[in-house]
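cache lookup: miss for this entity combination. No prior model stored, computing from scratch. Input as submitted by user K.M.:
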Amino acid sequence: MSSTRIPVRRLEPRKLPQQARSQTTVEALLEAAAQVFERHGYAAGTTNRIAERAGVSIGSLYQYFPNKDAILVALVHQHLAESMAALQPQLERLCGGAGFDDVLPDIVHAMVALHALAPGLHRVLFEETQLPPGLRAELDDLEDQLVEQAAVAVADDPRWRPIDPRLSARVVISVIEGLTHRLVLRPPSGVTSEAIAREIIELVRAYIWTRHDTGD
Amino acid sequence: MSSTRIPVRRLEPRKLPQQARSQTTVEALLEAAAQVFERHGYAAGTTNRIAERAGVSIGSLYQYFPNKDAILVALVHQHLAESMAALQPQLERLCGGAGFDDVLPDIVHAMVALHALAPGLHRVLFEETQLPPGLRAELDDLEDQLVEQAAVAVADDPRWRPIDPRLSARVVISVIEGLTHRLVLRPPSGVTSEAIAREIIELVRAYIWTRHDTGD
Amino acid sequence: MSSTRIPVRRLEPRKLPQQARSQTTVEALLEAAAQVFERHGYAAGTTNRIAERAGVSIGSLYQYFPNKDAILVALVHQHLAESMAALQPQLERLCGGAGFDDVLPDIVHAMVALHALAPGLHRVLFEETQLPPGLRAELDDLEDQLVEQAAVAVADDPRWRPIDPRLSARVVISVIEGLTHRLVLRPPSGVTSEAIAREIIELVRAYIWTRHDTGD
Amino acid sequence: MSSTRIPVRRLEPRKLPQQARSQTTVEALLEAAAQVFERHGYAAGTTNRIAERAGVSIGSLYQYFPNKDAILVALVHQHLAESMAALQPQLERLCGGAGFDDVLPDIVHAMVALHALAPGLHRVLFEETQLPPGLRAELDDLEDQLVEQAAVAVADDPRWRPIDPRLSARVVISVIEGLTHRLVLRPPSGVTSEAIAREIIELVRAYIWTRHDTGD
DNA sequence: GATGAATGAGTATTCATTCAT
DNA sequence: GATGAATGAATACTCATTCAT
């Protein structure tokens, strides 16, 4: 009779690789997981396939990840870190007084570039799977922070005085995120990612312009 | 959607129900499938559960659907039909000469209403699962048609003469679809679906206004 | 991402077989499980082996038992039922006024016969595995009832007036149970099960005789 | 004990620790194993857990024990040694002419004390696992020796002349061992280990008294 | 000698699908 | 037409054991 444990599901990596060798293994696993999930989707991306593609035994996979979900979570965290690295500089420019108008293109281009790299994987990461509540909350928090910063930046801009900066900011963020996903992950034929970025920028500009108090 | 192989796989309903009783059974199955997929997701929504909830034996389910994917496909078709039914009148108004400005709100409201009904199901139908290529193409075709119609309507509008009607139309459609999904399926806290619709409308209006040739 | 259910572990049979065919399957499975556990022990008695020996697919096993433990539980219940069936008549004789001295031999013989049938299985059922708390409690309850009945019977016996009937009864039950297990499940060489029964009877008789208030 | 196959399998410690450090390691491993088996049972007591708890790498564990079973065997031997150490003096008293009646209480108390120390471990050692045949035989031999000695002692006792000293001795040993296990490892609520010892002593006394030739 | 990364056969369990009744 | 018992390939995951460093 198996003992009745309390099944607390861990999602953090199981142990930190200490030797150089294992560091390599973990990286190979994450890389393999990204490819496998991208090609097969999450459900059909089996742990055995991931291990195989990583050139590693299934046992090694489970030495570093307590379960399949943990791999996904690690991938999401990786993406988050990359996103922050790409966005942080722009946000600092914004807070440093640069005009929203100037920063916007860079933000959008960064977002588009970020997603264009491995569109299938992003689909899996953010659409196909139901992320665990903790991670979901983490992402939502992050977005809220972005919204907050954007709201402040937009409110400060002397030329644009939006009536409801918070809502405007939320829509702006959603538009950027939503359209990037929509257009980059499933690009309509005959539309370059360059054109996509351009249109997103125009869209946001137009929206903000409309939503402000012209003071007339 | 599970398989990556390319076996010969039928996705059409196995046989058309001819008697009233069968008709009822099929409807019960689709309704049950919608509920089960909404609650459990596609992968965890087992055919046995669907059959059980439909009050029908698993054997009967397979009498009408050759496999699990076929149920999903039927559900997508159903959704498509409903969408068309909701959108067609507006499109006809558009083609009949009504101003895009007038029709836009109705379109957006229709879209939002369509998705607000069973958000979880829509997530499953359009995000969680990798639709079979044929269906995917079908959906894309449909969207292309919408784009085409919208392009014509926008181009015809005497007050708005967009520089690239086709691209503008595509963006408009994507914005409506993308934001509806993004905002309705995972609504930010404190934002009503009414507000969402309003902002989408504003967004599109602003964009079109910007994108036109003012003739100055 | 798999949905996070609350893992309540069921141990009851999964569904009651409704057709005659499945009744047969369940019986074959239990019989096979008894043999497999007896030969290999619980841990090494795999579900696949059980299914194979039952001449049934592994899927069928899980159609009737939600997990491996449930099979063990069913086996214990089966044994319990058989034990009660064998013991009940004697207990009724006891309560009906028959002398403890007369009934004792029959009880011991019944116990020995019960265990001599599949000793290895009983070892697995009651020694090797840590039974789930509910079942453990059930067994303890049963034993407590036996103790209670024995205590009453012994107390009533005019010839035996034990000082502490409850404790004496407990020891008597434990002796019968403990020695049956010890001697039947791992019989010393050269001792027949007949001799074992005889000695157990003597032991209990001597004990009770000693433990009574001689009234001197 | 897992394997049912009969591979060539070493169960002796792999190498005798020669340096003081190694001696310490082996002791730490056995101590850890005892704790881990007591807490988790044999099957769930993994070698990695044992090594971890011993503060030793898994590699080191296998330096001293060829496999998991060998650890169990070592533990059994350890227990045997302790048992002999506790029992030997009493047996010598017996052979030295002390009355069985006088020695019995000390034997029983020694047995109870021995088992009360780590009941869970004893359950694992002697009930949960199917000991390898060699060890099983070793244990049985030991018991036979005890029986022999007891038989001689009992036969010699001028006051007790049992009809079949060998059988009586066997029953006595079994009673002591069986009831100790039964009552110490799974004590009925409300019964102290002191009371248990007392009742076992009484039981054996009564039995021997009954089983002797009164000479009438 | 010690370490711990790597291994992979083996385990319980699920679920889409078939087919005898 | 309907039923539901039966199937078994496939999956996530474990753990005793090895061996390069």
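stored under new cache key. Chain C is about 75% helix and 0% strand.
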